[in-house]
């Protein structure tokens, strides 16, 4: 301020006399604006249109230029204009939030206002214009704000000449359509832009793509008070010297994932009030000397790489209002001294490795509204004095090692409490005053009581009228879901999870469940009896994989036109699948009715434009043919019709489904030859897993398909389908603010061996044609499917030799050719090239000669080779006679080096796991 005043005095020194004259006589008329500047302003106004949409949507305050009237002479009185009181020149132009829309360039009349000191164009829409280089001519500028105004491109170097600038803001120029940053600071880079701007106090480049590391010259800007560099894509090391800037109050560096740095010893004092490093790669420990930052109000270190214990001196920052240490690797206990931070409103410690107790001192923090302890290793219980935190609005201690008897009542006394998460500890939650709630009670919005050893339905819920989320899953509540629940939060409830209890039914509920906004309903793993409950029309997710539901599928279900996920697998439902179930919701992604007693045909109403990704009708008694309308499921990734009674030829027409990854037709009555596909047809372009086992297919193996299954040759986007499925679910669940505890791994048992393969699906490529009547030889073209992990041709009528081409399948983990009529030797190449092979079965064929040694073959048992009279050598007991031609085993390192922990991989497509990858 002082400086700019000085400049003004210097420039207008000739008018000093007038100034004194004015100050003597207030009768003097105000100085009128200069007509050339007035004209320039009117031209400026005309170069834009007023964005009516933005105005209507409330994105801008009001169009200041509306008051700029060609009839009105004195432009100094117009909205947004500031004139020099003596000379009448325009020195300030504030058009922020004025709904301006249009392009601007260096020919704009704006740049005729050469005496401008302050220019604020923030929060308009300049239509992706480049920032005009002519700004560099406004050499008097001390204040320049172009934030949130849809400028794009490189920031021009002319800005670096504006050495009077004390405030410079280019932030938030953002393309909402493409969700991307618009401005770039590359040439000039940040260093050349700012190095001469030595008067800067306020600098914001948030949301500008800054290509270079933060230049150390920044630490020369000794006047700097505020530095905002949010989401700039910064890399490299943050210059430590910046922390020492004596006037700095704000360091705001959020969301620069690759920005590294650490906190120095603060053996100096400064004025720092806000230090926000959230979501960067800052690391190291929190120095004990942090308590020298005694002005600090905001300390955001969440989602970085900090580690070590939290120094107790952190409790000496009397002004701290916001403390976020979430998602780091802090260890040790939560310092009780934090209880001295009496102004603290937010304390976020989630996802660290804190151990020990929750210090009771925390309940001294009477200003606290947000307390998050989720995902640590805290022991003990929640201090009962929690009820002292009268302003508490959010409390989450999910997923710790807390336990003991926990009383609900102190929480309910907190009248501002809306979000309460006590899940996934070892609490025995009790309700002392469970009968009468006459006192005012917390009106909760979200409540998570998963795994709290509840034995009864919590009675206090009767008085909860604003619930959006209720999670009572994994408790021991049995009996009926009480009738009174049908009146609880009927208008607000969005999410209801009652899974993993022992509920037997809804006690006298209406035919359609009552919560009119419900989106998510999970009732899995109970012992619900009777017919399928029908959720309200709003439902998006409905999962009721249970044991005991029976009866037919209610037609009412077909009214749920918003449903995305429908899963009532593992019940006892019978009757046919109503045709409407194949065409009731345009949003349906997943239809899962696995393992019921459903019979009749597969419904045939699959409609054009549906979004289904997964259809699982397996383990029922469905009959007849696959309806051709399945062709309409263009997004289908997963089709499981296994274990039914379908009688049909191979549905080669499914090969036109562009997204189909997984096709399971096993254990049905499919029959006949698999004809090779026509040459010019695209067939199963994304197929990675096909299971045709246990059918009656005959004829030769379809070598033509092996040539053409391109995604088995080369996986594109290795994790697309399961990731996608998981994301769509995840997204829904994260909106709902639900504690997540998915089990991403799966355990599979096969032939007595168990394996755990946490990411099995991402790269799993498999062919299972076992237990059919295929004959002829194994075609060489199988060797092209380089991504194959599992190959099973067992129990057919295959003849000829084992093709050497199989040795090209270098990703192969499991190979089963047993129970055929194969002849000849086992190719040596299988042992030298299949270095991942952990399961091999060639038993019960007519193979001859010496079993190759070396490689993975050292690990196979004799059962892999049994039933081949002509085979000899290890691991069989039969020795090879001296005249059986034998090559020396390849000199390989000990089998130990191949990793004894290689796991046997078998192919079991468990759909439950699929949903949870
Ligand atoms: C915005 O920019 C586009 C593309 O340059 C142009 O066609 C359009 O006329 C501009 N709109 C306004 C109001 O200047
Ligand atoms: C600058 O903008 C004006 C008015 O929109 C236009 O007529 C002129 O062609 C532009 N000049 C350049 C160099 O783009
Ligand atoms: C900064 O100022 C110095 C001296 O006034 C000048 O020589 C130099 O070119 C300027 N640098 C930039 C990037 O403007
Ligand atoms: C801070 O808290 C600790 C323990 O909680 C206490 O002993 C100490 O006196 C407090 N310090 C101040 C300055 O209040
Ligand atoms: C803070 O909490 C502790 C333990 O809960 C208590 O002894 C102490 O008196 C409290 N201090 C203040 C200032 O309330
Ligand atoms: C609840 O309170 C009301 C009024 O105070 C009383 O009439 C009623 O008996 C109480 N109910 C129970 C179960 O205590
Ligand atoms: C293959 O199966 C079909 C249908 O079951 C049958 O008609 C045909 O004779 C079989 N072909 C051979 C070669 O067994």
UniProtKB/TrEMBL annotation:
InterPro entries xref list: Leu-rich_rpt, LRR_dom_sf, LRR_N_plant-typ, RLP23-like
Signal peptide per UniProt: 1-25
- Key words, A-Z: Cell membrane, Glycoprotein, Leucine-rich repeat, Membrane, Receptor, Repeat, Signal, Transmembrane, Transmembrane helix
Report the principal subcellular site: membrane
Q: Where is the Leucine-rich repeat-containing N-terminal plant-type domain?
A: 34-84
Keyword Signal in the entry? The reply is yes
Q: Where in the cell is it found?
A: Cell membrane
How this chain sits in the membrane, per its record, is: Single-pass type I membrane protein
Q: Which GO terms describe its cellular component?
A: plasma membrane
Regarding protein family, the annotation reads: Belongs to the RLP family.
Write down what this protein is called. Leucine-rich repeat-containing N-terminal plant-type domain-containing protein
Could you tell me which species this protein originates from?
Gossypium barbadense
The taxonomy runs:
Eukaryota, Viridiplantae, Streptophyta, Embryophyta, Tracheophyta
